[in-house]
Design brief:
This protein is an all-alpha fold.
Length: 128
Amino acid sequence: MQLEWARIVQAVLSMIVDAEAPVRRAVIALLELMLPSASEVVFAPFARTFVVYISSALSHTDAAVQRDALFVLRLCLQKHGDALRPFVHSLYPNLVSVFSRRISHLARSPTTVAAHGGGGDDDDDDDD
């Protein structure tokens, strides 16, 4: 089982940074099925790998990829938080960056945005 999990994890996680939202949604759907059925014994050897890929997605320039990475992180923490604990500290810088950009974006008032010539980057306003 461990060998099959290794192959699946590498293939699935490599797609969490895909530019296409349907691909990332498929990854999330697959992880929603895989993670609850994986025991700690099966998941634990891959915890660091999950964190590395999630960190990569959190540092992506596309806000939608970052948002999906947060969703994947939540899925992993819900079922396998204990296994992730030794590695999760490496996510802090990217999490702070994502949240800071989001807070900055939300803090902009509609009047300020309109005064500067339009809506700007609306990518992270939709709730894909």
